Amino acid sequence: MKISVIGAGHVGATAAQRIAEKELVNEVVLVDIVEGMPQGKSLDMWESAPVEGFDSRVVGSNSYEDTAGSAVTIITAGLARKPGMSRDDLLAKNTEIISDVVKNVAKHSPDGIIIMVTNPLDVMAYVALQVSNFPSERVMGMAGILDTARFRSFVALELNVSVRDIQAMVLGGHGDTMVPLPRYATVAGIPLPDLLSKDKIDAIVERTRKGGGEIVGLLKSGSAYYAPSAAVTEMAEAIVKDSKRILPCAAWLKGQYGLQDLYMGVPVKLGKGGVEDILEVDLNDEEKAALETSAGHVRDNLSKVSL
In the chain, how many domains are there? Predict the structure, then answer.
């Protein structure tokens, strides 16, 4: 079995390394248009195998032919955010880049699954769906896991507890209008509102929404990659192991939550078929309104896409 990662920048290379170290598949292919870069990074990763103790081969390439027959293709190619930029600012250029990438992915791995990481994520997943002509269950975006991880990490900092005991849920588009759901968050089964005041929860929600921008501002050049690569690796693992994980991902909605014909972060069941089910949770009026606002933002971006 093979997983390919398109884009050998920070997110792509770190994802390839995580996948190899977990030995999710026999071969990990890292592809980039820059000659020598994916080959050099892949060789460096492979040379770490004797120390880390993994046997998954890591191969770098400038050709999509080496990705042929991939069970999962992770797409991280495209421009990254810079300070002062929103994810939406990347729309036009990344639409062009992703369209070309997906044409090649669909050609060489027609039965595979696509996981989109490139921003603006919800729109790029839509571009991948349209260009690939794959069924929607085989095209998804990495959003909710990352957003939820940020929420959980901030709760852990506030309460000074292990992140492993925190569960949370974040819905909506992958951007500043995302919808964290504090009343569905728990710490070792204890509802979060029983442990923190509303003011503190609201502050965590706001920091979660701005989490990516906070890192961009600190780095000055480039954007987050450790957490995004961990999130997309968790998705790939659920698919190749057919583990039926319930994870928040950007999925194509067909009426769920009263929304359709757009990608939004929702809880899904991930297995070898991709998005095998979309779970609907009860939302109160405030949460429904926030989700509709987030959906409206995604629709506005979709209206700007020209394929």
Answer: 2
pLDDT tier at 92 (50, 70, 90 boundaries)?
Answer: confident
User: What CATH number does the domain containing 267 carry?
Assistant: 3.90.110.10
Indicate if 8 and 110 belong to the same structural domain. Answer: yes
116: CATH? 3.40.50.720
279 and 180 together in one domain: yes
Give residue for tokens 């769906």: 129
Same domain membership, residue 101 and residue 34: yes
Q: What is the DSSP letter of 109?
A: -
Determine which one of 10, 108, 174, 297 is catalytic.
Answer: 174
The arithmetic mean of pLDDT across residues 67-78, rounded, is: 97
Residues 149 and 114 in one domain: no
Any residues with CB less than 8 A from the CB of 70 and at least 6 apart, and which?
A: 2, 3, 4, 29, 105, 108, 109, 112
Contacts (Cβ under 8 Å, ≥6 apart) of 117: 11, 15, 74, 75, 76, 141, 142, 228, 232
Are residues 103 and 234 both part of a single domain? no
pLDDT value for 306: 84
Q: Which residue has the tokens 């997309």?
A: 232
Q: Please confirm, yes or no, whether 297 is among the known catalytic residues.
A: no
What is the rounded CA–CA span in Å between residue 273 and residue 276? 6
Task: Give the residue carrying structure tokens 């797409």.
Answer: 75
3-state secondary structure 195-233: CCCHHHHHHHHHHHHCHHHHHHHHHCCCCCCHHHHHHHH
Among candidates 141, 147, 185, which has minimal Cα distance to 166? Answer: 185
